[in-house]
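A further point concerns the way the authors explain their paired sequence and structure data. Nothing conveys this as quickly as seeing an actual entry. An entry of this sort, consisting of the sequence and the corresponding C-alpha cells, reads as follows:
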Amino acid sequence: MGFKVPCVSQIRRWMQLIEFKPGFNTDVMELLKSYWESLLIEDLNCIMTWDEMSIKQLIEYDKNADKLEGIQELGHLSKLSPASEALVVMISGIRKSWSFPIAFYFSSGPTKPAD
C-alpha cells in the first residue's frame, strides 16, 4: 500500500501560498480544510506518520527574515546548535490517496520524547 506524495509543481505552488517555518503549520491546516470539504466523510479517515532524516549541518543568516537558519528549532527547546536532523509529521488518507506535511522540526541529533 503506497501513499501518494504531492508532485514537485504542486509543492512549488504551496510554497508560494504558505510561509513554511519549523513547527506546526496552521496555514497548511487552513488549506486542508478547504480540500477536506470536497471529500466524502469516509475519505477523511487518515493516519499520522513521522520520519526523521539526517541533513547537512550548515548555519546561514537570512537577511530578509533577519534570522539564523540551520539551527535546532524545537519550540521552547530551541538553541544555537547546528541542526543535523529534520523531523517531518504528515497525515495521509487511508481510503483515498492524499498526504500532507503538517509540521517539521530541526534538531541537533535524533529527536527524543519529552519527559
